[in-house]
Write a structure and sequence with these properties.
three-stranded antiparallel beta sheet, about 400 residues, Aspartate Aminotransferase, domain 1, 2 domains, alpha/beta, seven-stranded mixed beta sheet, 12 strands, Aspartate Aminotransferase, domain 2
């Protein structure tokens, strides 16, 4: 059976070049980067190179990059680290209703500790209004955390405008750029951010490695206590193979992004256009243009998304109903409900996310499957509802 992977916002295939860069770290350069002997210093040199590669991807300085275990840790370090480092009580942070759960649950945890949190709404396309951010600021606000690109609908937030507001009010600003890294250019200076999170497995590096950009001069408290690793900002022996993989993926993204973005965008737009043409009563969730190029969140009216997912999976196609971190939840997507969609429409939505490895042939394969599947599921739904009404229930 043919296999087609269209769930790249959940995780991506490790690029061959990344794997090639990592293997020597297991076989030859396996030393502890804190050791003074040759093995340790070779490992440290590889880590320093990777730090420069990640810094270049973000237009940052190498000493502003802290390696972590991934996006969740980076988000937690940014949010809790800033809140804990600011003296005093009665502190307040601002975020949005459609953040990743790594941010939302961090906010909920802080609320239990007495920290005030404002969750600003989004419009029907999933975009934050910078005016809402400015209106929410109080004298106690210590941090604003707004994601760069949404993981479910791909919406790119007005980060630069929010950064300007935060800078004018002398408030720390963090952005979760996990879904943006490697897909669109990221320049921490232009964005005006103090902290920025990325995760390697979203752009063809392995799972279990990420980074947090921390602007020079930003005071932050570590979440982990132990050695003086990462300039006392993240204790623990560094995962050199994965860090090297993250560095190589960053280097590849810099050299390939322009070509990959154009090709992926063309494929995604073709997929959307053909889906809307071939299948009636389908709609796009989120913005049509202001989104990352690989993401399409499509609503199939009168179709249960879980049923469609199962049918696609049986035909060898992998996609999702939203965030992989929320799989198993019986609640509708918090992102889609924040757009104003009722639960039945949220439960009729599928996220397709492409990568540089996605081919036109794979897209055609999925397009040839969808109309029959959607039609059959709609007919089953119609028959079920008709029977339900005839029984008088």
């Amino acid at each position: 059976m043919r296999r087609v992977y269209l769930d790249n916002n959940a995780t991506t295939e490790v690029a061959p070049e990344v794997m090639g860069a990592m293997l020597p770290c297991y076989r030859e350069f396996y030393g502890n980067a804190s050791s003074v002997h040759w093995y340790g210093q070779e490992a440290k040199a590889l880590m320093d190179k990777a730090r420069q590669q990640v810094a270049t991807l973000l237009n940052a300085e190498p000493n502003e990059i802290v390696f972590t275990s991934g996006g969740t840790e980076s988000d937690n370090l940014a949010i809790r680290g800033i809140v804990d480092s600011v003296p005093g009580t009665g502190k307040h942070i601002i975020t949005s209703q459609i953040e990743h759960h790594a941010v939302l649950h961090s906010g909920q945890m802080l609320q239990k500790l007495g920290i005030k949190v404002t969750y600003v709404p989004v419009d029907a396309e999933g975009l934050v209004d910078p005016a809402e951010i400015e209106k929410s600021i109080t004298p106690e606000t210590v941090l604003i955390s707004i994601m760069h690109s949404n993981n479910e609908i791909g919406a790119i937030q007005p980060v630069q405008e929010i950064g300007a507001i935060a800078r004018a009010r002398d408030i720390y600003f963090h952005t979760d750029a996990v879904q943006a890294a490697g897909k669109v250019p990221l320049d921490v200076e232009q964005l005006g951010v103090d902290l920025l999170s990325i995760a390697g497995h979203k752009f063809h590096a392995p799972k279990g490695v990420g980074a947090l950009y921390i602007k020079k001069g930003t005071k932050i408290r570590s979440l982990l206590y132990g050695g003086a690793h990462e300039r006392n900002r993240r204790a623990g022996t560094e995962n050199i193979p994965h860090i090297v993989g993250l560095g190589k993926a960053s280097e590849l993204a810099m050299t390939e992004m322009e070509n990959n973005t154009g090709r992926i965008l063309e494929l995604r737009n073709y997929f959307e256009g053909e889906t809307f043409r071939r299948i009636p009563h389908t709609s796009l969730n989120g913005p049509r243009t202001r989104r990352i190029p690989n993401t399409a969140n499509i609503r199939f009216e009168q179709v249960e998304s879980e049923a469609l997912l199962i049918n696609l999976d049986l035909a060898g196609v992998a996609c999702s109903t939203g965030s992989a971190c929320a799989s198993g939840s019986i609640e509708p997507s918090h992102v889609l409900t924040a757009l104003g969609l009722p639960p039945e429409q949220a439960f009729s939505s599928i996220r397709f996310s492409l990568s540089k490895f996605t081919t036109r042939e794979e897209i055609e394969y999925v397009l040839n499957l969808l109309p029959e599947m959607v039609g059959r599921l709609r007919e089953m739904s119609h028959q079920h509802n008709k029977s339900f009404v005839m029984r008088g229930e």
